[in-house]
């Protein structure tokens, strides 16, 4: 239930809809009960005889206006009060009385359904508002969490939580909001009316309620566990689908369609089996509660029937009253079934709420400190002060120290796994160091706001990450206020204007999913243009040319050189030909600096750098 109340916190902004929903449900339940009670005067009119058993006509006198004597007499008072006003209106004419009570019943059902509609009307805004805010909260949290969180999660499972689990809540927990007021009040009002009509018969009914509750709870005991299996398996096949769409070219190229098809079908088959068990358990709720309800009605028919048949002259339970009582008894069944389904839904929604709450409650180790510093400029240098870092157990950087003065270009080289890209991840604070500290202008980056830190940085990665949007909107990620002229200028600096100007809509051309309408070199030059448009003082280039052919590499290299002018740059290089003009080259091996200097100085050492150059056939 804790998860239920956690989800209900999101209903706070919509409390005015909740209040209107509750008020509407109160009147719905009230008029729902009164609509059955209103049957009593109609039955009295229909079954009332104008002759006594001896055949003599009975002369009726006008009823007197009743006097209220207290709660114990409320049933008789209400009946007498209605009879008095009905007589006043009809003048004792049975035909008019019949029309009067039928009109009364119609009005009661009209009001009941009007308030039922209003309750559902307000619930729509409440429920959909909560779902929207919850979905937004999950997405916002996903954006805030560090990359390390997602390295341990399947993308498909995250998608399942944001889509399927949130949707489950809409039709499980939040549908219970409707039941929290309407159905219990309907039962309370109905039982109150039943107690007024016949306390003895109502106490007999109460004997069956604990039995019904026990049986229903036994049926729903394992529902949460079954629901959790369904939701987890949905995450598995969504992950397979996401991987398939991402790697479709490789799958086809290696004739692996059958393998992935089998993997996907295995998951959907498990989902099919788990869903069948879950839904069949859910489907048992309604018929079981209805059967138990009919058993209760049968018991009432037996016991109440005996009371009517054995009724003496002073008995309050005549035939008409008993029929009204039976109607009220049946009126309990519908809300009881709804509450039964609601309890099942709470169990089912509990698994979804737990999975969503797991994301929302995840701790963000990279959260800004209180009173973190807003840094608006870069003035002197970047310092790596004896830092060490590990992703899991093994340190990938060990006691690394380096100072990069403002305006200088430093290249990091080394074999794969030597820690080059890790340095880029640490400067941008995608991860925090385990030991030591990274300083910008003498300030530990952990003391800065993450937003102001990254505002000083421009990033160009090996994989050009672009989005299914126009070139203009892709570039404006770095500077939302940029004009079209500034965008064109950035494209020229990045050597990209030469192909963008020939596109059908130039900068307004949509580049497709992940920019797939463009070549690798074109995508990379757009990502450089995006960094140029942001115009940060510090550039981080993480193997920006390693995935390109020679011609594209040449064009991109020119773009990079244009971009790095008058900026501080950290260049992570795989192709050593691209960093020969760097102010300093730092050679890494297993997370440690083994050599550092300019290109010619390192060649003269005939060490690790020389071997890397020879392997790439650069003399």
Features:
alpha/beta, four-stranded antiparallel beta sheet, 24 helices, ABC transporter transmembrane region fold, 619 residues, Rossmann fold, 2 domains
Characterise the protein shown here.
- With 619 residues, the chain is an alpha/beta fold.
- The protein has 2 domains: 359 residues, ABC transporter type 1, transmembrane domain (ABC transporter transmembrane region fold, Up-down Bundle), CATH 1.20.1560; 235 residues, P-loop containing nucleotide triphosphate hydrolases (Rossmann fold, 3-Layer(aba) Sandwich).
- 60% of the residues lie in helices and 10% in strands.
- The protein contains 24 helices and 10 strands.
- The strands form 2 sheets. The protein has a 6-stranded mixed sheet, sandwiched between helices. Strands 2-1-4-5 form a 4-stranded antiparallel sheet, covered by helices on one side.
- β7, α22 and β8 form a beta-alpha-beta unit.
- The longest helix has 51 residues.
- The radius of gyration is 38 Å and the shape is elongated.
- The two termini are 70 Å apart.
- Pfam families: ABC_membrane, ABC_tran.
- It is found in: Cell membrane.
């Amino acid at each position: 239930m804790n998860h239920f109340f956690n989800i209900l916190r999101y209903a706070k902004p919509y409390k005015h809809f909740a209040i209107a929903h509750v008020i509407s449900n109160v009147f719905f339940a009230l008029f729902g009960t009164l609509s059955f009670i209103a049957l009593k005067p109609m039955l009295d009119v229909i079954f009332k005889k104008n002759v006594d058993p001896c055949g003599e006509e009975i002369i009726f006198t006008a009823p007197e206006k009743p006097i209220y004597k207290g709660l114990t007499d409320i049933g008789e008072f209400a009946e007498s009060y209605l009879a008095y006003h009905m007589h006043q209106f009809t003048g004792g004419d049975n035909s008019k009385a019949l029309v009067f009570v039928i009109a009364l019943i119609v009005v009661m059902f009209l009001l009941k359904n009007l308030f039922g509609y209003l309750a559902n009307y307000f619930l729509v805004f409440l429920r959909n508002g909560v779902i929207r805010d919850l979905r937004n909260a999950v997405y916002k949290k996903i954006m805030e969490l560090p990359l390390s969180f997602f390295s341990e999660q399947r993308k498909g499972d995250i998608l399942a939580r944001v889509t399927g689990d949130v949707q489950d809540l809409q039709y499980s927990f939040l549908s219970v909001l409707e039941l929290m007021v309407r159905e219990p009040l309907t039962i309370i009002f109905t039982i109150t009316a039943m107690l007024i009509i016949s306390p003895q018969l109502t106490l007999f009914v109460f004997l069956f309620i604990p039995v019904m509750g026990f049986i229903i709870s036994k049926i729903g005991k394992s529902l949460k566990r079954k629901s959790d299996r369904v939701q987890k398996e949905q995450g598995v096949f969504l992950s397979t689908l996401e991987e398939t769409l991402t790697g479709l070219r490789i799958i086809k190229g290696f004739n692996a369609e059958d393998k992935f098809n089998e993997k996907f079908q295995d998951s959907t088959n498990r989902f099919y089996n788990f869903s069948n068990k879950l839904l069949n358990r859910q489907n048992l709720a309604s018929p079981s509660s209805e059967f138990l309800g009919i058993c209760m009605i049968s018991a009432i028919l037996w016991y109440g029937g005996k009371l009517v048949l054995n009724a003496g002259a002073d008995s309050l339970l005549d035939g008409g009253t008993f029929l009204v009582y039976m109607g009220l008894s049946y009126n309990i069944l519908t809300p009881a079934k709804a509450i039964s389904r609601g309890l099942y839904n709470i169990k089912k929604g509990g698994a979804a709420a737990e999975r969503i709450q797991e994301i929302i409650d995840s701790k963000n180790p990279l959260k800004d400190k209180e009173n973190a510093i807003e840094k608006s400029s870069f003035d002197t240098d970047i310092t790596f002060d004896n830092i060490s870092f590990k992703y899991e157990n093994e340190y990938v950087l060990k006691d690394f120290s380096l100072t990069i003065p403002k305006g200088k270009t430093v290249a990091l080289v080394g074999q794969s796994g030597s820690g080059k890209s890790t340095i880029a991840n640490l400067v941008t604070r995608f991860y925090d160091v385990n030991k030591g500290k990274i300083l910008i202008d003498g300030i530990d980056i952990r003391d800065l706001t993450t937003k102001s830190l990254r505002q000083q940085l421009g990033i160009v990665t090996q994989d050009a990450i672009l989005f299914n949007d126009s070139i203009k909107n892709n570039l404006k990620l770095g500077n939302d206020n940029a004009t079209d002229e500034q965008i064109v200028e950035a494209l020229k600096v990045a050597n990209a204007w030469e192909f963008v100007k020939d596109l059908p809509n130039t900068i307004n051309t949509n580049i497709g999913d992940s920019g797939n309408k463009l070549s690798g070199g074109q995508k990379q030059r757009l990502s450089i243009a995006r960094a140029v448009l942001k115009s940060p003082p510090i550039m981080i280039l993480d193997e920006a040319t390693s995935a390109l052919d020679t011609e594209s590499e040449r064009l991109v290299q020119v773009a990079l050189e244009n971009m790095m002018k008058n900026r501080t740059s950290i260049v992570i290089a795989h192709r050593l030909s691209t960093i020969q003009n760097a102010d300093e080259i730092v050679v890494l091996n297993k997370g440690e600096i083994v050599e550092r200097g300019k290109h010619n100085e390192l060649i003269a050492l005939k060490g690790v750098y020389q071997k890397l150059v020879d392997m790439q056939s650069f003399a």
